[in-house]
Structure formats: structure tokens, C-alpha cells
Amino acid sequence: MQDNELLTVSISDLELGGKAVARHDGRVVFVDRGLPGDEVVARVTRAKRTFAEARLERVERGSPDRQPAPCPHAERCGGCRFQELRYERQLEIKERLVRETLARLGGIAEAPVTAIVPAPERFHYRNKMEFSFQPAEDGSPRLGLHERGAFDRIFELETCLLPSPLTVEIVHLTQRFAREHRWRAYHPRRHEGIVRFLTVRHLPITDQCAVHLVCASEEIPSLDAWAREVAALSPAVRTVTLLLNRTRANVATGESERVLLGPGVIVERLAGLEFEVSGSAFLQTNSRQAEALYARALEAASLEGHECVLDLYCGTGTLTLMLARAAGEAIGVESVPESIERARMNAVRNRIVNARFEAGEARAVLREWARGERPRAPKPEVVVVDPPRAGLHARVVARVAELQPRRIVYVSCNPATLARDLRDFAARGYALAEVAPFDLFPHTPHIECVALLTRAES
Q: Which of 2, 67, 216, 237 is the most buried (most CB within 10 A)?
């Protein structure tokens, strides 16, 4: 097998992360955009001794679960790769992948995995989307999404079925305005230009929308006029801000923010609580399914009203405040200072007085409490963790186990690191009672889970 070689293969499976798997001449072949049950012709883009990567050229015989893609960008976009796969089949595959990952990486042969919870909405479920600018060949600004597998190539967006229709309207207005006023789009390789990203957050439950333009400098022609035109699209647009990112990092955040219109924040309502959301704040991007996810986490915590609960990686305090309503005290730990500040504001907004927040990396905070270097060390009966995709540091697992909570509730966005961490907790006396998978992101390979661990003597 060589680079650029054409292969005819049958897709047998999908791997965690969404890679389609086939076999040819004893090697595993990962075929971009292949679906289980397809027979395809694919062109090898990278050949190694034990595996190869290939790009789909054509489908010779489609899977019975294959359906026409509703999005015109399906062949170029790197986003919702599974939209050509029947939704019920997507759910079956995701639930199976959770089971297999726990067995393979966690050593849990018969994992207690419940049926996956489907998303209440299959399209228009995202409350936040990031769009990238890039100069076209003639130098004019282009605004859209990244091509599949490329950080330095984007295509001009016509439509997108994941965010709200208002989000797409804002993109179209900004595309037109940027061309007319000759905005200089930033190039991710040459690091030249000014306008970098457009982030739109449209919260479905409160119908409030915030628009953030991320730029390398404030030298943007007719910036205020653009903000006024965006706000005039809909009463839902409550605020428009400018985020400055002068670094070379291609991320849609900024080291400073200037409010162009409105209060600078919007509010979402989850489980009867209100949460202020700023440009840099984290909020689950599927509001309605997030309510179901958090409800399962609260159910797993099994609080009776008197317990102390520790919530690690608490962000802006969403889950911490929900836990506080059912516990004696809830303590949130978060490393981002702006998120801690917003969490404290959210506690005041919701009149919750039995929640407090500690700023710092979870590993460092737990170490300082253990050594008596930080005051008010808790003795939690329940610990909740909601880490990023990398999962928990081994020392965090050890420190949590040393606290001897009767229950640990693990909210995970990555089954692979969840499996690894469950194995480490098991070595410290915590048994897995249940894993509940949730589909927060239909048509993508992403899976969220809520896992409950109990101490062996319990």
C-alpha cells in the first residue's frame, strides 16, 4: 500500500473519535467520511506499516443506514461528520463505543452502561458557534468554517444546521459588511491581518444572543456601524463586544474585551437557575440536553440536604449552584479567575448562600488543603468532577480518594480518559456503579457521560 493508491474497501466500524475503519492487506485503513456498511473507493493519503489513512473518493455501495446529507457543506466541513448516518444508528454506535472503551482502556468487562439519552433536538441545538476569517486569493475577507482536516483553510458559509437561524443571519451580514468595508482578514500561517473570528452565542431558553468579534487590533473600519447593524437584526441580540487577541494562538478568545453595545453579558436559565454568560465563559453548548445531563449528575449525587459537596472544574458554577440547592454546602474549584468571579456573581444572582468558590488548579488546591496551607479544607461526602477532555491528573485522583467521599460523580466529555480514570479510582477502592451516556452533539462523534462511583465499604 502506497500514498495516493486507490483502494476498494468495506467499512466495518467506527472508532471513538469518528474514524471509519476498514482492512486491506492486513492493515487497518481509516477512511474519512466512510460509514459502517459502506463499500467505497478511497485514496491513500498516508501509509504506515500497520495502518493507513485514506480519503473517500466514491461510494460503490452505500450502507443501509446511509441517508442524504441535508447540509450543502457536508463534503467539505469538518463539523457534523455523521449527518449522513441515520440518527438511531448514531446512538447505537455511540453507546457501543462507550462500552467498548470502558472494557478496553478501563478493564471493565461488563460495564454498567445505561441506554444513551438522545438529544431532544437533532438540528439547531448549538447555542454557540465560532466562525473564522481568512483572506481570499484576491485579498478580500472570507468568513466561514474550517475545511475538514485543515486549520488554515476555510470555506465561505452558506448555511449551517447546528446553530439557530439568527446565528446564520449574523454571519451573512458580517460577510457582506466585511467585504464592503474592506476588513483585513487574519491569515493563520502568515499571522497578518486583523479580523480573526466571529463568535455567536444564542441561548435558546431565554432567547438572548451575544456576538463577539475577535481581532488582532482595534483598527477595524466602521466597527460601531457593524455592531448597530447586527443588533438591528433581532431583539434577541442583547450585546456585541470586541475581543482582542494579539497572540499567534488561533483561538477565538481574547486577553481583553470592549463592549460595543449592550451590557456585555447574556443570561441563560437552566433547572430554574439563571446564569450570566460573558464572551469567555464556559456554558454547555446544548442548553436543553445540558439540563438532562445535570439532572442525572444530581440524581447520582443522591443528596439528602445536609452533605458537603466538592465540585472540581466548576467553571462559572452551573453545577455547583444546582448541587448547593440540594446539599448543606457546595464548594466549587476552578482555575480560570474570570470564571470564579462569574460563579460568585451567579450565586448572588440566584440568592444561593451555601456555595463558595476557590480559585486555583484542582491539583494544587487539593494539595494545599491536604497540607493545611489553604484554610477551610472541606470533608466532602460527595465529590463531583467535570474535567476537560484530558481527564484527571493522577494526583487529583489520589487526592480525591484520600478525602474518602462516599460517592464520586464524574461528568466526562471523553470516554477514553473516563475509562483510564475509572481504572485509577478502582485501584483506590471506588467501584463503578453506573455510566449514563448522553448525546449532546448529534451528527458528531462526541459523547458525554455521567459516571457514579461508590466507596467499596459502602
A: 237
